[in-house]
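Minutes, project check-in
Item: structure for the 201-residue chain
Input as provided by the requester:
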Amino acid sequence: MNKNMLVLASKSRRRTEILKSCAIKHKIFVTNAKEIKGGVGAYCNTPLLVVKNAKIKAFAAAKNFQAGIILGVDTVVLFKGKNIGKPNNEAHARRMLKSFSGQKIAVFSGLCLLDKANGKFACGVERTDLKVKNIQDRDIEKYFLKLGPYDRAGGFSIEGPGAIIFDDIKGSYFNVLGLPMGKLSDLFEKLGYDILDFMEG
């Protein structure tokens, strides 16, 4: 494999779409690595949790390649001191939306970029703060039906109709989508690469 090939250790459709929108050549490799769940011991610390999980994914994927740059990413929502991942089902996602109404939440993404050729890696974390508008109980169902797929951390997407439920956003928009590109560029630099060299054209 070309050393300037990025391997995305994630099945997230949104993350690969973000990379494609930046014309970044990449290969998708999904691992079955067991992630650490938040709320236990040191992993109550949200930044530590997402970075640790991103590292687990990157190193698990790297076992399957001789060269290349491996990217692991993990995103969670912090709400009232609790780390929230993807909802278990549709009913769970509805409850999440109702509980977020009128509240502040924070989205954390941990990234780990690993250079398989030399074993060097760099990790980082991005935080974005969001304020969810006050949603009346009678409108929860209407909002939910318009928000699209709920298989994301926190059970929501900020894209499309999802944009109308937020009163304020402070930080990286792409972080809320699941892949903070500014932070990713920084990690490439730490490994001695220029992210522009991974772009097509």
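Outcome recorded: The longest strand covers residues 104-115.
No further action items on this chain.
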